[in-house]
Amino acid sequence: MLLQQLVNGIMIGSVYALTAMGATLIYGILRILDIANAAAYAVGAYLGWYIYTLTNNLFLAFFLAMILTGLIGVLVEKYIYLPIISKPNVITIVPLITSVGLFTLTGDLLRLIAGPNVKSLGVKLRIGVLQIGNLRINPEWIFIIILTALLFSILWFILNKTKLGLAWRATASDSEIAQAMGVNINVSMALSYILGYGFAASAGIMVGLLYNSIYPTMGDIPSYKMLAIIVLGGLGNPVGTVLAGLLIGLSETLVAAYIGSIMPRDVIAFLVLIIVLLVKPSGLISKKNA
Amino acid sequence: MKRKLKSLLLVSLALMMAFSMVACNSKPVETNDDPIRIGFFAPITGPAAADGLSTSNSAELAVEIVNGNGGINGRKVEIVKYDDGLDTKQAVNIAQKLTTNDNVVAVVSGSYSGPTRVAAPIFQEAGIPMISGYAIHPEVTQSGDFIFSQSFSGAVQGKAGGVVAVDMLKAKRISIIAVDIDFGKELSESFTQYVEANGAEVVSLDKFAMSDSEFGPVITKLKEEVKPDLIYMANYYGHGAEIVRQVKNMDFDVQILGTEGIDSYQFLEIAGEDAEGVILTTNMDRDSEDESTQTYIKTYTEKYGLIPDMVGASVYDAFQVLFKVIEEVGTEPEDIRDAIKELKNFRTVTGVLIEYAPSREAIKPVQIQIIENGEFHYFDRIEDLDIITPVPK
């Protein structure tokens, strides 16, 4: 049973990591806690569902929804966040409240456009169940774990092996010096939002696939849970976010399996956060320059 | 010049006051031409919006049909509708508006136990009858003699679930998965009581918060360690669908028994073919030969393109009860209340309403449905009065 529970935990953990990755990338550059990332998660899931019902092609639905949501992210950045944060002396809570507003608005817009009913993707994957002894891994899980690994590899490649990524990292560590050295920080910001909202969309579709349900309030829980994960991961650190997602996924699963459902899963996530922060106040992986 | 302007102003002010006083006094006395106004609230937005849509559709349909037939004693019916967003604070505001502003003769709640429970005392205080469609918490009707419930209580349904598990399906080792709110608590307590008194054992109880959606760990535990022969699900369709999906994913051979919480087109939609063979206790029998049931199912499906469910049907029935008694006794709230109390053997979409118990909860048969070919179908029915009559606590 332990092995099966570990697989359960890793699977949930990868989804958590993916969900929180978008907000991590945005915080890394703009220092905005972007709650609206959870709205991108729901919007992405709806776009994915819509494209899937039109084309019946899961991969197309997946990537097209990611790209479209990423582009929406750039618009949100350019026309909403940038004008706000470029005002002199703006306090950090203003963009945060803006993002909460965007998030709430999106949930109701989705309900008005698509209706309150749960939409089901109804995807039947053709690959079979992977059975090793007592251990069972379902096709949806295999799909999710492979896709998560793939997306993280692409992200790692972009951030570490391309000029764009170098500029992003330079901006993340000190935007003023990066700008002085000739980095176009507007491009870095736009990259943050394309990737940030694209990742949120991919998480939304995966969760929609996993639970076969897409509904207007699906971003509610991620909207606060991703905070636990990004803080635990060291605020703005992509590798830390992956580790934090896995740690929280595993803790929740093992507590539910061996101790019982004594408290809601979300409580466990925040308990893990508090315990880790007591020992290591900067999160699992802190920024080198912090 | 200045003085002239001043006097002009005074005159116009006086005129305005006079007009507004006339307006205040001209509140019309209710005549036979005025519509009969019935209040209604449901969670049209928020996490229960799908149920809100079902109930709100059904309320509109009930009113449309009665008006299409010429109204009640020649008077049209008008619905005063509010959205509580599944928020208790909002429900209190709505109840206050309905009792002070809206001139309603009675109210139907299309909401869950939480909002209905806080609204009920306000209607009781104002002396306006309220019928709750499907809220199962006993405190709803305990608010007073103006408050009725169209559905059986959680205690009755839990007991009926026990009958299905032990007497019909012969289960010996039972695991319970319940949602950790009033709904799950009421159902699982009375279920456990019956099961344990009748020779079976509850081998595990797992409670989940409404916000939880991951059941992999608990299903793994049940399959590999607890090994029950039946899982009783005291929860709503979201949790229910995920549980049956996980059970099938893990290739776990176990009978699943649900409640009215999964009696929703949403359950069928999300669970898909994994829902096959799931049995549930509810109040609507889709295979009933009763004309009103079949008409409701047919007109609802045609009008809204959705499969009707128990929350909608229960609200529809609450309106039928009001139409029936208003037709007989008129629109005085006390008369409506007394007539509801006296109602006996009234055919509704959700079976024959035998009568209201002294606790003002409807006594009616519990329907046992099974999911076959993606639809709800007849499995059995419990009519034993010992089971379906609520026991005062």
Write a compact overview of the structure shown:
The complex is a heterodimer of chains A (290) and B (393). Chain A has 290 residues and is mostly helical. Chain A has helices at residues 2-30, 37-55, 58-85, 93-114, 139-161, 163-173, 175-180, 185-211, 220-232, 238-259, 265-279; strands spanning 130-132, 135-137.
Helix and strand content put the structural class of chain B at alpha/beta
Range of strand content of chain A: under 5%
CATH topology descriptor of chain A: ABC transporter involved in vitamin B12 uptake, BtuC
**Number of H/I helices of chain A:** 11
Number of domains of chain B: 2
Which range best describes the helical content of chain B: under 10%, 10-25%, 25-40%, 40-55%, 55-70% or over 70%? 40-55%
Give the number of helices of chain B. 14
Helix content of chain A: over 70%
Order of helices and strands of chain B: HEHEHEHEHEHEHEHEHEHEHHHEEEEEH
Average predicted confidence as pLDDT of chain B: 90
Arithmetic mean of pLDDT of chain A: 87
Total strands of chain B: 15
What does this entry look like structurally?
The complex is a heterodimer of chains A (290) and B (393). Chain A has 290 residues and is an all-alpha fold. Chain A has one domain (2-279): Orthogonal Bundle (ABC transporter involved in vitamin B12 uptake, BtuC), CATH 1.10.3470. Helix content of chain A is 74%, strand content 2%. Chain A has a two-stranded antiparallel ribbon. In chain A, helix 3 packs across helix 8. The model of chain A has no long low-confidence stretch (mean pLDDT 87). Chain B is of the alpha/beta class. Chain B has 2 domains: 36-152 and 289-360, Response regulator (Rossmann fold), CATH 3.40.50; 155-282 and 371-388, Response regulator (Rossmann fold). Helix content of chain B is 47%, strand content 20%. Chain B has 14 helices and 15 strands. Chain B has helices at 2-25, 49-68, 88-100, 113-126, 139-142, 154-168, 182-197, 216-226, 237-249, 265-271, 291-304, 310-329, 333-342, 385-388, and strands at 36-42, 77-83, 106-109, 130-132, 147-149, 173-179, 201-208, 230-234, 255-258, 279-282, 344-348, 351-356, 362-363, 366-372, 375-382. In chain B, the strands form 3 sheets. A 7-stranded mixed β-sheet of chain B has the order 7-6-8-9-10-14-15, with helices on both faces. In chain B, strands 2-1-3-4-5 form a 5-stranded parallel β-sheet. In chain B, helix 4 (113-126) links the parallel strand 3 (106-109) and strand 4 (130-132). In chain B, helix 6 packs across helix 7 and helix 9 runs parallel beside helix 10 (265-271). Chain B is globular.
